[in-house]
Amino acid sequence: MRKVKRYPTEGPNALWQIYSTVSKWKAVRNFVFIQISRYLPSLRMKNWIYRRVLGMKVGEHTSFALMVMVDVFFPEKIHVGNNSIIGYNSTILAHEYLIHEYRLGEVRIGSNVMIGANTTILPGVTIGDHAIVGAGSVVHKDVAPYSFVAGNPLQVIRERYEETREEP
Questions:
Q1: pLDDT for 41-94, tens place per residue?
Q2: Is residue 143 classed as helix, strand or coil in its secondary structure?
Q3: Residue 56, class by beta-carbon neighbours within 10 Å (0-12 exposed, 13-18 middle, 19+ buried)?
Q4: Are 125 and 107 in contact, with CB atoms under 8 Å apart?
Q5: How far apart are CA 5 and CA 121, in angstroms?
Q6: Which band of pLDDT confidence, cut at 50, 70 and 90, is reported for residue 107?
Q7: Rounded to whole angstroms, how far apart are CA atoms 131 and 134?
Q8: Residue 73, SS3?
Q9: Which one of 36, 124, 151, 160 is most buried, by most CB atoms within 10 A?
Q10: pLDDT tier at 1 (50, 70, 90 boundaries)?
């Protein structure tokens, strides 16, 4: 079960009420810096923007590939551990706006995690250390440490895989 907090709304769908939940200036600033980061070739500069401008918690040596889209409205709810890779064109959401409510949830991605390209991570999930998420997956529930998961709906391919690494 995802850990999200629900906020009921009145009137038209919740997205019509976005600027009563987040400042439009914050949204514009975040959008500009996220778009810059999506195309930046420098991993150090991307991480600096994520940490210092957007308020994300990003560990050392974490790599965000080209075109990664982080949450525009609540990037500060995203935490990524050390030495993780977020694959090309992946999306990390900390919010969802529905018809009669919106939901917010922290996204926690552990250390030494590999997220495949074109993956969508929904709000309120935790991905454990050393997990692997296959390309094109929708992460709608927590992922145990050392698991290999993939698909939509997300399925466990292998639990507690043993990482083998040949030394040169």
A1: 999 999 999 999 999 999 999 999 999 999 999 999 999 999 999 999 999 999
A2: strand
A3: buried
A4: yes
A5: 16
A6: very high
A7: 10
A8: coil
A9: 124
A10: confident
Give residues with Cβ within 8 angstroms of 35, minimum separation 6. Answer: none
Neighbours of 155 (CB within 10 A): 10
Q: Give the pLDDT band of residue 163 (cuts 50, 70, 90).
A: low
Residue 161: the pLDDT is 64
Q: Which of 154, 152, 98, 102 is nearest to 127 (CA)?
A: 154
Phi, psi (degrees; rounded to nearest 5) at 52: -85, -30
Q: In what order do the strands lie in the sheet with 114-115?
A: 63-64, 85-86, 114-115, 132-133, 148-150, 155-158
Q: Residues in the chain, how many?
A: 168
Per DSSP, which regions of the chain are E strands?
5-8, 57-58, 63-64, 69-70, 78-80, 85-86, 91-92, 95-97, 101-104, 107-109, 114-115, 120-121, 126-127, 132-133, 138-139, 148-150, 155-158
**Angle subtended at Cα 115 by Cα 113 and Cα 116, rounded to the nearest 5 degrees:** 145
DSSP state of 16: G
